């Protein structure tokens, strides 16, 4: 999906269309006052104070109709320049514009505004020449938005829209929006009872329901086995830590604004942990290590807490409480290359299992001029960044560099995945760290009996289970592969009176084989129950009639397929187990 904000021409068109929207609203609601109307990735919006009027979905077509009427009239859009005093006089009855003007830099000797017919709006521009150029637009939705994003302020009404050069481009974009809506993991999560949120729990704090917990449990089992096979040891550590812990690690100075507020308990100051590396540093430090012990790989499925603005939280994708598929690898300097390769190989192996093919590697580096965000040690950074480049070049993995995207303690390799809809998302990450081992005074004894400092590789293959689950739901439209599906098979007797006992036998045999199965013997029509199984996206529907009962067979239909196949129950179980074992997707 195109990023309108990054397209110069579309950005100007959408900003101009925001003014067209405001003019139409002013015609229909003369009392309207306007805050800001910026261009965003998906188009534009305008925040509006309509007094006592509350917009409904039925109002958007009326506003669109007025916008088209104004555009057809074809008025030119004319720029005017004012002094700050003139601007204050022009907008003296508009508290929102007065707020904008009063906060402008005193050095700005001129302030610009744009007029189109009977409407003038404060704006830096630029704009299209005439409203006649704005032909292909659509108002998408409306919502509430606090003035300045502050819940203490008045609630304004925000109208979202989008504008394109051609009708074809607009239609294509609207189709993509509809596809995104159908794939939205929040919609599917509700329909399939995977997770929920509740205001009493709080924004960004999802509750995993039984079906979603099954999916997450399967993901945990999957990656746990892979990590154990690769020599990882797993630990459990607390979800809190003292402020001193994060001062030692450096996170308190570099990450404090992303943490939850400090809590005082007795004489100690605690915070909810935003990451797990400080805890794992202390796990390593728990005993002495020889160079022969390294690499030491410490993994954890760890719950972390990070502050996200309430407006940014989104289902499982952007949360305040998350579970990371985290690990820290403690290595000798001569082991960096090999261990880094193993991490990249694990990432590629996992992506193969999940059918993820559209991705790219990003080498995230520091901004050399930013001494506040990044630990100030040029030699350490040069060594770390060159080491990662060397390994990536040796692996032959195509990558691009992104300055200013590193962690404060070291460069990292991020994997950006292109989902079915929407912008790229970062799933996996692997970071090289020379700093934290020094801060925590970690050591090992080398072959000469001398103390040396290990290097740490931070890595997360799934990223967080939350975001990875959201990604999978949207990629599959909720049609999860058999091994992950919370409801793998549903058994439906044609008549519970005549085939009910046999249906129970089939159900029990499938359950004993470890299949997640459900029996639907409700007194409902067969067609209704079959349609419901399809809607719920159950992988296999087993249909049992008189013929199946007499022959001791079952007839099954795979989700999204019309063909029905008849086999014995043992053959069916063998088929299911093979598909689960192969992790077909």
Give a structural overview.
The protein has 585 residues and is an alpha+beta fold. Helix content is 37%, strand content 26%. The chain is built from 18 helices and 28 strands. An 8-stranded mixed beta sheet has the order 11-15-16-23-20-19-17-18. Strands 1, 2, 3, 7 and 8 form a 5-stranded antiparallel beta sheet that branches. Helix 1 packs across helix 2 (59-73), helix 6 (185-191) packs across helix 14 (465-476) and helix 11 (336-353) packs across helix 12 (378-395).
Descriptive key words:
585 residues, alpha+beta, eight-stranded mixed beta sheet, five-stranded antiparallel beta sheet, 18 helices, 37% helix
Write the layout of secondary structure elements.
Elements: H1 8-28, E1 33-34, E2 39-40, E3 43-49, H2 59-73, E4 78-82, H3 84-90, H4 95-102, E5 111-116, E6 119-122, E7 136-146, E8 155-164, H5 167-183, H6 185-191, E9 195-196, E10 207-208, H7 210-229, E11 233-234, E12 240-242, H8 243-249, H9 251-255, E13 263-265, E14 268-272, H10 277-285, E15 296-305, E16 321-331, H11 336-353, E17 359-365, H12 378-395, E18 399-403, E19 412-417, E20 425-433, H13 435-439, E21 444-445, E22 451-452, E23 455-464, H14 465-476, E24 489-493, H15 496-512, E25 517-519, H16 526-535, E26 540-544, H17 546-551, E27 553-558, E28 564-568, H18 569-582
Parallel strand pairs: 11-15, 17-18, 24-25, 24-26
Antiparallel strand pairs: 1-3, 2-3, 3-8, 4-5, 5-6, 7-8, 9-10, 12-14, 13-14, 15-16, 16-23, 17-19, 19-20, 20-23, 21-22, 26-27, 27-28
């Amino acid at each position: 999906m195109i990023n309108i904000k990054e397209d110069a021409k579309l950005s100007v068109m959408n900003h101009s269309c925001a003014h067209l929207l405001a003019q139409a609203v002013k015609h229909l609601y003369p009392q309207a006052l306007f805050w800001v109307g910026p261009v965003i990735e998906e188009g534009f919006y305008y925040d509006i104070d309509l007094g006592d009027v509350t917009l409904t979905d039925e109002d958007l077509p009326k506003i669109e109709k007025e916008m088209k009427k104004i555009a057809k009239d074809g008025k030119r859009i004319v720029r005017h320049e004012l002094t700050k005093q003139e601007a204050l006089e022009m907008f003296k009855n508009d508290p929102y514009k007065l707020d904008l003007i009063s906060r402008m830099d005193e050095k700005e000797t001129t302030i610009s505004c744009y007029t189109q017919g009977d409407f003038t709006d404060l704006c830096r521009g630029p704009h299209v020449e005439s409203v006649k150029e704005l032909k292909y637009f659509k108002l998408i939705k409306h919502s509430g938005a606090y003035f300045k994003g502050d819940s203490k302020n008045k609630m304004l009404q925000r109208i979202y829209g989008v504008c394109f050069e051609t009708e074809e481009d607009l239609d294509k974009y609207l189709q993509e929006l509809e596809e995104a809506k159908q794939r939205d993991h929040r919609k599917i999560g509700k329909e399939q009872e995977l997770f929920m949120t509740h205001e009493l729990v709080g924004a960004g704090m999802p509750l995993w329901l039984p079906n979603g917990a099954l999916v997450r449990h399967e993901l945990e089992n999957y990656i746990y086995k892979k990590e154990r096979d690769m020599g990882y040891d797993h630990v459990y550590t607390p979800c809190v830590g003292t402020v001193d812990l994060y001062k030692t690690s450096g996170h308190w100075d570099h990450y404090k604004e992303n943490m939850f507020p400090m809590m005082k308990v007795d004489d100690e100051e605690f915070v909810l942990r935003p990451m797990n590396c400080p805890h794992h540093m202390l796990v390593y430090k728990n005993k002495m290590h020889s160079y022969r012990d390294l690499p030491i790989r410490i993994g954890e499925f760890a719950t972390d807490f990070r502050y996200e603005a309430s407006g940014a939280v989104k289902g499982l994708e952007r949360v305040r409480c998350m579970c990371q598929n985290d690990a820290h690898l403690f290595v000798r300097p001569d082991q960096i290359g090999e261990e880094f390769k193993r991490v990249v190989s694990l990432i590629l192996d996992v992506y193969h299992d999940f059918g993820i093919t559209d991705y790219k590697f990003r080498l995230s580096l520091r901004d050399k001029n930013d001494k506040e965000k990044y630990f100030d040690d040029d030699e350490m950074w040069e060594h770390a960044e060159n080491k990662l480049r060397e390994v990536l070049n040796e692996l032959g993995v195509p990558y691009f560099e992104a300055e200013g995207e590193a962690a404060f303690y070291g460069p990292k390799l991020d994997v950006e995945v292109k989902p079915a809809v929407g912008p790229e998302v970062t799933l996996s990450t692997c970071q090289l760290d020379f700093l934290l081992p020094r801060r925590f005074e970690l050591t090992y004894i080398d072959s000469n009996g001398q103390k040396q400092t290990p290097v740490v590789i931070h890595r997360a293959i799934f990223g967080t289970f939350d975001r990875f689950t959201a990604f999978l739901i949207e990629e599959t439209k909720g049609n999860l592969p058999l091994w992950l599906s919370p409801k793998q098979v549903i058994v439906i007797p044609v008549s519970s009176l005549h085939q009910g006992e046999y249906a129970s036998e089939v159900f029990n045999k499938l359950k004993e084989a470890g299949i997640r199965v459900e029996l639907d013997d409700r007194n409902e029509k067969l067609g209704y129950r079959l349609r419901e199984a399809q809607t719920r996206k159950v992988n296999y529907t087993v249909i049992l009639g008189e013929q199946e009962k007499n022959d001791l067979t079952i007839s099954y239909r795979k989700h999204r397929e019309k063909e029905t196949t008849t086999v014995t129950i043992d053959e069916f179980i063998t088929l299911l187990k093979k598909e689960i074992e192969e992790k077909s997707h």
